[in-house]
Amino acid sequence: MPIRGTIDLMRLNSDVIWAGAEYSNLYLWKYALNRASPKPKTNKPVLSIPGFSGPEFTLRPMTNYLRKLGFDAQTWGMGTNKGPKDGRMEYIDELADKMMDKIDRMAEESGEKVSIIGHSLGGIYGRELARRFPDHIDRVITLGTPAHLDVMRSVRSVNSLVGMLFRARTGAHTQTMVQGENGGLHEMVTPPPGIPLVAIYSPYDGVVTEDTTAIPPEYLHTSDGTPRENIEIIASHCGMVVNPMVLITIADRLLADVDNWQSYDPKKYMPCGLRAVSKGFFPAPISKDMITLPENVKAIALA
Questions:
Q1: Host domain of residue 262
Q2: CA-CA distance, 237 to 202, in Å (whole number)?
Q3: Into how many domains does the chain fold?
Q4: Within a 13 Å sphere around the CA of 64, how many CA atoms are in the beta-carbon half?
Q5: Whether the Cβ atoms of residue 110 and residue 44 lie closer than 8 Å to each other
Q6: What integer pLDDT is reported at residue 2 of this predicted model?
Q7: Average pLDDT in the 59-70 region?
Q8: Closest by alpha carbon to 86, among 167, 11, 172, 164?
Q9: Which residue, 52, 77, 203, 213, shows the most beta carbons closer than 10 Å to its own?
Q10: Residue range 45-63: average pLDDT?
Q11: Which residues pair with 229 in a beta bridge?
Q12: CA 101: distance to chain centroid?
């Protein structure tokens, strides 16, 4: 096995084992987590989308947690996220057509816009749904989701074993998916205009690197003041949807005031004796010096 393949196998195995520990911690700290978490004043609708190859039931712990807090949390209702067949970007439009009625119904029943939480590839879908239904979407929160893409960087940043699985399930190579003859994922890098976007990512992600999952500085500041925020949390990729630290962050950001957006402060949810160590769980978000967009992607962003 090539050196990279061996390293990626170790990274992926470690990520899955870590995710199991995060799942156990969720049940160990469930009572304390529910008590400490912020509660919505209304039954705010939240739609969650699984990551690539993620069965829908993997979202159940997160949706159950949000429901107990008072959110109307639902999953996308389409089962396992198998990715776009043959890497066709038209799949995004087909997905939007299938989910239009559900999003419209959730917004109508609650009288509020729908918030979307997308894990990994599900976050890309979430951003695109917000782009297509801006009148119905309140905000998008992505978990370990690529926030900018170019062919070479994406091929290197994605775990090679995940790339092999992607090719087996969709019939398309990662490079084909990103580039695309008629438009690929690299054209979906700009956040949906006017929609608040929060990117939660980990420096120890075993599937995709953090410099790809953080929102680039070029997109963080908008002329109309639309909130954009990077939040770095120590977590696995596979376990983000069950990590207690990630869940309480999601609940907080779902309730953040769009008109008076304040950066996430994890210390307010930490017991007094642990506030000093919050930096250990929430390092500083990725800085401008650590990430810059490739020129071809900047051109798309400015177009």
A1: 3-302
A2: 7
A3: 1
A4: 12
A5: yes
A6: 75
A7: 97
A8: 172
A9: 213
A10: 94
A11: 198
A12: 23
CA atoms within 13 A on the CB side of 75: 21
Written as six digits, the tokens of 240 are 């983000």
Confidence band, pLDDT 50/70/90 cuts, at residue 57: very high
pTM (two decimals): 0.86
Give the tokens for residue 129. Answer: 């749904």
Gyration radius of the chain's alpha carbons: 18
